Amino acid sequence: MTAGPATAQVETPGSSTKMQRSSRGWWIATAIILIPALVPPVSLAWQVITKGTGTTVPFGRLVELFVNTLTLSAAVTLTSLAIGTATAWLTSRTAIPGRRVWMIIAAMPLVVPSYMAALTIIGATGPAGLISTWLGIEIPTPYGFVGAWTALSVFLAPMAHLIVSPALRLIDPATEEAAVGLGASKRRVFMTITLPQLRPALVSAGLMIGLYTVSDFGAVSLLRFDTFTRAIFTLYEGQIDRRPAAALSLILMVVALAILFVERRTRTRADYQLGTTKRRRDLIRLRNSTRYLSVGFLSIYSLFSLVIPITVLAFWLFRGLGAGADLGTFWDEALRSVGVSLGAAVLAAAASLPVAMVTTWRRNRASPIVESSVWGVYALPHITVGVAVITFALIWLRPMYQTLALLILAYVAMFMAQSVSTVQDSLRRSSPDLEEASRSLGKSALTTLRRVTVPITMPGLLAGAALVSLSVMKELPATLLLRPNGFETLAIRIWSATGEGFYTRASVASLVLLAVSIVPLLALTYRDLSD
Amino acid sequence: MTSATDRLTIRARGLSKSFGEVVALNDFNLDVWEGSLLTILGPSGCGKTTALRVIAGFEDSTGTVEIRGRTVQGPESFVPPEKRRVGMVFQNYALFPHMNVAANVGYGLTKGSDPRRAHSALELVGMSGLGSRMPSELSGGQQQRVALARALAPKPDVILLDEPFSNLDANLRDRVRREMQAILAEAGTTAVLVTHDQEEALATSDLVAVMYQGRVVQVDSPAALYTEPADPWVAEFLGDSDVIQTTAHRGYAETELGRFKTDLKGPVVVVIRPEDVQISMGETPNSVVSRSEFFGHDQLITVSLGSGTHVRSRIGPRPSYQIGDQIRVRAIHARVFAART
User: Fold this and answer.
1) pTM to 2 decimals?
2) What is the ipTM of this complex?
3) Among A287, A512, B58, B71, which is disulfide-ready with B53 (CB 3.0 to 4.6 Å)?
4) Cα nearest neighbour of A442 on chain B
């Protein structure tokens, strides 16, 4: 997937000298890599334009889907932002007991995929659920809006926590001290000084959470709330005519790209950072009553986001073991999950090197286009990517239809942005002079690639591969649509077993998935610690 | 090929290159003689780094570059950087962070070459005991010496140094500069150094090429550049000077500071260095002191001439002048150039 810089020996004068000689190879490689990235939007648009929409979805139904999707997205965004900002403020600004531990605990639920969150809600409630078995109180399973809203809010709050925490730390303490010096109360300082400076972080976190909710398939499908993604899947499964699914996918894709566009625009405009003060700030000492309340809030949040899910999974595991229930196979599923995620991770990391190269060391006017297409594909809801890739394969690449290769290529396109950003980070820490130094010392472009460029970017390549493998392991909707017949992964097993009521099997697969995810997660944490 | 060009290490002719609207090189010509140390001096943005990168092969351009008589860049040929036998010392040194000092210095040696060369290169720069250190464990001055050793080890035909001292502390810079000069002289290597620092250029080099807007405007010894600048821009760029606009006729350019011989006719500019402007108290005053700066070993007096033009005079610490003093100034030496049309 990587290509060395070109070494043209002969060149006629008068050809464009704007692009540096050594950039050409990287740009050609990038162009080839970006072709799959453009497949989803192009093939969907092509299908809808040339083949029409098929049996049209009634207008009323379309409105209903719009309202449902956007209502859920808005509700989840507001709730997650509120929870995440609270956990961020408490763990980075106040002197609550166990502050650092809470800081990590508040971020942890992010590793739980949304269908697993739905599984824990379903497994905890209902006549046979954990709550009814242990406490004797039967809570009906909250299918529909409430269930989807709860599941997504609890598990997306860490996203806000992770974005707001560093923003809180970056605020110059002097601005807050100046306000105190002018006689402002704590509350007034927070409302008029702290919160406005957090605005960029909040907007960015809010849009990310909103985008995620719009794209989510696992929670809404298991908790039976009709949004675009669920409707697309139903249309796809239930009809031989695939045109309506493609049409709906195209609409959802436009919604997602619109959200991404808004996010990019606000990001560039909203830079409130004036100067960076390295000075430490004193942590706020809360009054006893407030402190108990705060710790109580954090405890309740982690009860819902960590303790209950793990207990539910363990409950169903032991209940199944005790009753001698069929645990189902999970060893093969685990091997498949690990296999495809490793394959996609290695490919994605390799593909990121040229892309990161032309957007950092060999940046030119075309670089922003490369970046937007990589991030654009990353923002596309996975179910729409699935529908688009199938459409594409059926029309142009019939032999690839339902092959592992196509599935892995789709993963690479969807998640490459993650490894591109870690490799970019590695390259930015270093300088292109290193390559030139190697060339001037008599080494060819390929030797330079092998002995200088790749070793220097290795940390970024490894971190990128770890991130991509985590994402692939958790991915559900695209896998569901693109997998070869009978190719069951852990994610598929959890989803189908939950849907069919085999909670024991779903729990076993969930626990295995969490266990397997620990390896890349540890690799990433280790990197952050050694930095 | 004539015998004169045999001793030329670098011969660059008609190099031109622009990045979009910005012209980096505009008919750049340069000769570097074997064994010499030449400095390219110019303000930032004049294209000097681009010139170095074209010679090294990191950028292409129109025009030709020959290194030891071999055309490495021309209308029909381009030799890639790794085949040019050109050593480069980068502004930020560009040491490979994942290799230790010895591996860095040995990087450019081919398999067949004497492995002791890396060691002797380190010895040459006085770093022989530090081969197992990592670049991050070295001070700025040490990193610079390793970068120099790495460039010298493969015994290149020429070494190019891009602003080599700009990342060093001011008090370290002089010492490192002298050391580097000694090392280059001992190695007998031809070297081209690029800088925007006049003092560095004048103190270090055999020859200085002054560059302005993408071309070399004058190549000379440091002393000749200062005393015989080729045009008013060089005079103003190197050291202090004041410019008086006037007209020349009958072999003289007439100014309020005296008349100066010239072959030119019509509008001219007269460039005068402050140390050539003398003050005499007794005679009829022709100017008023408008500013006086005292530096200890000398002082700089700015006077306002009858026409309103300001001229500076550098004189010894005595006598002292007050603002408003009426004095007579005259220039004992000046250079006359045709006014730019």
Assistant:
1) 0.79
2) 0.75
3) B58
4) B82
